Amino acid sequence: MARFPWACPWEYVKQINEIKNLFNEVFIEAIGPNAAIIEKEIEGEKIYAYYNPNLAGFATIWEGDEIFLHFLFIKKSERRKRIGTALIKALLEYYKKPIKLKCLIKNKNALAFYKKLGAKECSFGESIDGPYVLLSIEKILDPTL
């Protein structure tokens, strides 16, 4: 049975190496070969991890005027097991407000996942990693994902 999720500042994460490894693996796959340094990327954010029973995925959230999902990374072997949906559902229930996120347009799988969940397009932009769409998730339309 899955344990879900807990949140804490980066310095209190007990499984730092597991999360670093997963971050590097998925970052390279989704964004490109120049993996970022996770500690710099998520400074000031909260980490929500999903265990099944080992680390299966995590999300990072920036809390401000809006709730911003910075990263949602699921281990390749754990995909299509509703872990991403469980993380987003828990975040929506916890924060009780819409979640905003940017998704690179070239990341077709992630974009399709968010849209099936019910994410609405807010705007488009350009980043150093390429064009992106700003999305907002207010509620999950398809909980079977």
Automatic annotation (TrEMBL):
<dbReference type="GO" id="GO:0016747">
    <property type="term" value="F:acyltransferase activity, transferring groups other than amino-acyl groups"/>
</dbReference>
<protein>
    <submittedName>
        <fullName>GNAT family N-acetyltransferase</fullName>
    </submittedName>
</protein>
<keyword id="KW-0808">Transferase</keyword>
<dbReference type="InterPro" id="IPR016181">
    <property type="entry name" value="Acyl_CoA_acyltransferase"/>
</dbReference>
<feature type="domain" description="N-acetyltransferase">
    <location>
        <begin position="1"/>
        <end position="142"/>
    </location>
</feature>
<dbReference type="InterPro" id="IPR000182">
    <property type="entry name" value="GNAT_dom"/>
</dbReference>
<dbReference type="Pfam" id="PF00583">
    <property type="entry name" value="Acetyltransf_1"/>
</dbReference>
